[in-house]
Design brief:
By secondary structure, this protein is mainly α. It has eleven helices and three strands; from the N terminus they run ααβααββααααααα. The protein has a three-stranded antiparallel beta sheet. β2 and β3 (about 85) form a beta hairpin. The longest helix is centred in the C-terminal third of the chain and has 25 residues, at about 160-185. The termini are far apart.
Length: about 230
């Protein structure tokens, strides 16, 4: 019978993690999803399996499977006799996305204030946004912005709210990236967030709700048709 070494096994369980074996279709889907959400693949862009396979140096099978994953996410659609494409944004979808975002984030703000939740974690993301804006790094700013709003929802401590928000944020991320690639006023975007955190820290319910509502009504600042590419 082989000997066991409990102390060694215990140490190894803390120091050594599992080997990740991510299927190729998932890796491909992640890359394509990032390209869509960052605005590099714009709404309406055709997804041609042969071209993508050559570009990504893989066979067509994982490309096909990855596109199906993205179709399940609602980011890709099939057009009869034409194939797959990045799903276009409509003005109505943009408006509905932002109205839902406002409802979710106002609810989160109310719960944070009702439960006196500390907001120091939000300040860290504000600092990251400010640094990204100073460096004119759009990708970093979008990531920090998403982290800010994800944290806002997380610290509200409502599981169903968080699950719903994650599904909605796929589209929010895409809309933000498309809009901000055109406007590029990164300093203004970053500056919108610290006042929200300060109102939360001060326990000022009316101001915090007003600020988060104004922030999520970003749709009013531009014509959604400018990012809603239709067939």
């Amino acid at each position: 019978m082989a000997k066991t070494y409990p102390a060694l096994a215990s140490k190894m369980s803390h120091d050594i993690g599992p080997i990740e074996n991510v299927p190729l279709r998932v890796q491909v889907a992640d890359q394509l999803r990032n390209a869509i959400l960052s605005g590099r693949l714009r709404p309406g862009t055709s997804l041609v399996e042969t071209a993508l396979a050559e570009q990504m140096n893989v066979s067509r099978a994982p490309i096909r499977e990855a596109i199906q994953i993205l179709q399940n996410d609602g980011l890709v659609e099939t057009i009869a006799y034409k194939g797959k494409r990045v799903k276009p944004l409509t003005a109505r979808e943009v408006e509905e996305t932002y109205s839902m975002r406002e409802a979710f984030e106002v609810m989160a703000v109310r719960r944070i204030l009702d439960n006196n939740v500390p907001v120091d974690s939000l300040r860290e993301h504000c600092d990251a946004m400010a640094a990204a804006a100073k460096a004119d790094d759009l990708e970093a700013l979008i990531a920090a912005d998403e982290a800010f709003h994800r944290t806002l929802i997380q610290i509200a401590d409502h599981n169903l709210l968080f699950t719903s928000w994650k599904n909605l944020y796929l589209r929010i991320h895409q809309i933000m990236a498309l809009r901000q690639r055109d406007e590029r006023n990164l300093s203004e975007i970053a500056a919108n967030h610290p006042p929200i955190v300060q109102a939360l820290a001060d326990g000022n319910t009316d101001l915090a709700i007003k600020l988060i509502s104004d922030h999520t009504k970003i749709l009013g600042d531009f014509d959604p048709e400018t990012i809603a590419e239709t067939p």
